[in-house]
Amino acid sequence: MRLDNKVALVSGGARGIGAAITKALAGEGAKVIIGDVLENAGQSTAKEIVQSGGECVFVSLDVTSESDWDNAVDEAISRFGKLDILVNNAGVTSRGNVEDISSDDWSRVMDVNVKGGFLGSKACIPKMRSNGGGSIVNISSGAAIAPQPNTSGAYAASKGAVRIFTKSTAIQYASDNIRCNSVHPGPVETDMLNLNRQGEEELAEMKSRVPLGRFGRAEDIAYGVLYLASDESSFVTGSELVIDGGRTAQ
Question: Annotated catalytic sites, by residue?
């Protein structure tokens, strides 16, 4: 087992990419805490993992709430005794050009995508340090490298912030043996992909920009997170793992 005796906290782990990450980590021996606002979906994913022989619990987590993060970390420590891995996966998207984005929508995207990862890292780093190290994996986006024409400025800016925050965290905590890396998915077949998209024509246009000719699967992203969470990547920190079918290579 690649993550035997490891304990992982995954924000936004109830469904989509987060659920795939949770299942991949648990499948390799990690004890996993799902943190999400989607209680029914989170409980269902946790139950599925337990029924397949893994160890997983759900905690209610609004990533913009510092007290929720403290509660989630406390749950990890009380249940499993330590915390080795944090996956800051929770995120939201938005729609529209700069002139069309309201200040409220801008703040919502920044709060969840950027502040959420900051608060999660802040809550988990002390526990990782006391345990001798750990791995933080931040889910950014290909939009942080090269936004598509219809990518929301709020979304691209938030994921760009995640990209740089990752590098800053990696540098600051390398001496504590805490690694921090970002993952940059391209378009992936999830509910978020279809959120606010203008029908099949726009989806087909998005797919045409992917050299491999298809959208990604949630599992494609989960395998990358699994590598960065494991000791196989012990010399990898401050790096960007792009999983996008070649889109940003053009």
Answer: 155
